[in-house]
Structure formats: structure tokens, C-alpha cells
Specification:
Layout lengths: L1 E5 L6 H12 L2 E4 H10 L3 H12 L5 H12 L8 E4 L5 H13 L6 E6 L5 H6 L1 E4 L4 E4 L26 H23 L4 E5 L4 H13 L1
Helix pairs in contact: 1-8, 2-3, 4-5
Bound molecules: BIS(adenosine)-5'-pentaphosphate and zinc ion.
Family: Belongs to the adenylate kinase family.
Keywords: Kinase, Membrane, Nucleotide-binding, Transferase, Transmembrane, Transmembrane helix
Function: Catalyzes the reversible transfer of the terminal phosphate group between ATP and AMP. Plays an important role in cellular energy homeostasis and in adenine nucleotide metabolism.
């Protein structure tokens, strides 16, 4: 199975991914997580992407297509993948379709995490993450047992540099201008399923499961 998760910052893509990934034995490929890891490790890719990400703009199509192409080849990904935050431009979608076609497969579903912009600032500014596992918390909606500490490992949580109200504005602008058209592109192929992403996390999970079993 190949699933694409499309939605604005804070719509719940990263929260739903680990649950669905385990249930369907899929590989979770999140371009944002991969880029943040590259920035932290100061790799040549990370050095190129850092400033653009901190401004809330999209990094170049070539960079992200390159990392996805590389990641899809891993043997652990043979059962399929969740593409979280990719493709995010129509050019990325065209490239992805080409890559999948070469492997004799295609995208099965694109989940559109539909949510009103007004809800996103509170979600984004209250987010805390455990970087190595990708676990996500929220001060109000999903608080950890101990403030600032991961429930499972006891390690410290961190906040993302781009999770400010100010940077969110640019991220939303990029979403509406560059990423929304990806939904139109896949609607024409009949693979888009809309999700009510404003519902509580558990209800959103049920909606994703319904789409996947249909
Ligand atoms: P990326 O990391 O993909 O960030 P994003 O798209 O802005 O999405 P987020 O991770 O902010 O949102 P999410 O939907 O995962 O929310 P979450 O589930 O954590 O990208 C970062 C940057 O990398 C980009 O700006 C760009 O520069 C670059 N980049 C990445 N991919 C790229 C690409 N393909 N092309 C070019 N550039 C690229 O939830 C948020 C919070 O809300 C959490 O605290 C969570 O606990 C809470 N929450 C979640 N669901 C619910 C719910 N249902 N109810 C209440 N609270 C909830
Ligand atoms: Zn995310």
C-alpha cells in the first residue's frame, strides 16, 4: 500500500502516522522528520535546508524527491509506506507517480486532513515532540505524564523551531499556494479521501481505518 497524507501544519498527520503504520505494517516516511534529522546532524542536505525550514518555506523539489527516492528503496519498506508531508507540490506528485510507476505500483489513497486554519495556531504552539521516536504531545490536548518528559523513555521533549505563530503564517501560506493543488491533482485520479481532522485524535484514527478498509 502507498498512502499519502496531505494537510496543513498541525492537522494531525504526524499524530496518526505511528498508529496506522503499526496496524498496517507500513513504513512511515515523513519528509519533515527526515529533514530535521539532517539539520540536527549538519549533513550537506541539512545545511541546505535549515534556513528555508526556519522561515516556514518549502525546500526544493529536487532535495525532497531525492530523500524519498532513497528511503523507498529500504527493504523494511517493502510492504508499503505512509508518505507524511510528501508530495507537497504538483511537481513532487508527478515525480512520485513516475517513481512508483517504475516499480510497477501507484498511490492507493491520498488522505486530505481537512481542518479550518483558525484551529492550527493553538495546536502548533502547544506541541512538544520526542525527536528520536517521533512521539507528539500537546500541553492541552495530549499532555505527557510529566511536563517536558517523554512518557516511554523519560527523555526530555523539545519544541520545533518553526512552531511559532509567526512562522506558522508562512507555513500556511505555502500550504494554500503550493500544497492544496496536490489535492486537485489526485482528485482527478479518484484517490482522495477527505478526513474530518478537527475531531479528537481517536475519532480521526477511526476515520482513517474506515478509509483503508473501504
Ligand atoms: P513538516 O514536518 O511536514 O511540518 P508540517 O507540514 O508543517 O506539519 P506538522 O508536522 O506541523 O503537522 P502535523 O500534521 O504532523 O501535526 P501533528 O500531528 O504533529 O515540515 C516541516 C518543514 O519541512 C516544511 O515547512 C518545509 O520547510 C520542509 N518540508 C517537509 N516536507 C517537504 C516537502 N515535501 N517539500 C518541501 N519542503 C518540505 O499535530 C500537531 C499538534 O496537535 C500536536 O501537538 C498534537 O498532539 C496535536 N493534535 C494532533 N491531532 C489532534 C487532534 N485531532 N485534536 C487535538 N490535538 C491534536
Ligand atoms: Zn508532522
Amino acid at each position: 500500500k502507498v498512502l499519502g497524507y496531505n494537510g496543513p501544519p498541525g492537522s494531525g498527520k504526524g499524530t496518526q502516522s505511528p498508529i496506522i503504520k503499526d496496524e498496517y505494517c507500513l513504513c512511515h516516511l515523513a519528509t519533515g522528520d527526515m529533514l530535521r534529522a539532517a539539520v540536527a546532524a549538519k549533513t550537506p542536505l541539512g545545511i541546505k535546508a535549515k534556513e528555508t525550514m526556519e522561515k516556514g518555506e518549502l525546500v526544493s523539489d529536487d532535495l525532497v524527491v531525492g530523500i524519498i527516492d532513497e528511503a523507498m528503496k529500504k527493504p523494511s519498506c517493502q510492504k508499503g509506506f505512509i508518505l507524511d508531508g510528501f508530495p507537497r507540490t504538483v511537481a513532487q506528485a508527478e515525480k512520485l507517480d513516475e517513481m512508483l510507476q517504475k516499480q510497477g505500483t501507484k498511490i492507493d489513497k491520498v488522505l486530505d486532513f481537512a481542518i479550518d486554519d483558525s484551529i492550527l495556531e493553538e495546536r502548533i504552539t502547544g506541541r512538544w515532540i520526542h525527536a528520536s521516536s517521533g512521539r507528539t504531545y500537546h500541553t492541552k490536548f495530549a499532555p505527557p505524564k510529566v511536563h517536558g518528559v517523554d512518557d516511554v523513555t523519560g527523555e526530555p521533549l523539545m519544541q520545533r523551531k518553526d512552531d511559532t505563530a509567526e512562522v506558522l503564517k508562512s507555513r500556511l501560506q505555502a500550504f494554500h499556494k503550493q500544497t492544496k493543488p496536490v489535492i486537485d491533482y489526485y482528485s482527478k485520479k479518484g484517490v482522495v479521501a477527505m478526513l474530518p481532522a478537527e475531531k479528537p485524535p481517536k475519532e480521526v484514527t477511526v476515520e482513517v481505518q474506515k478509509v483503508l478498509s473501504s
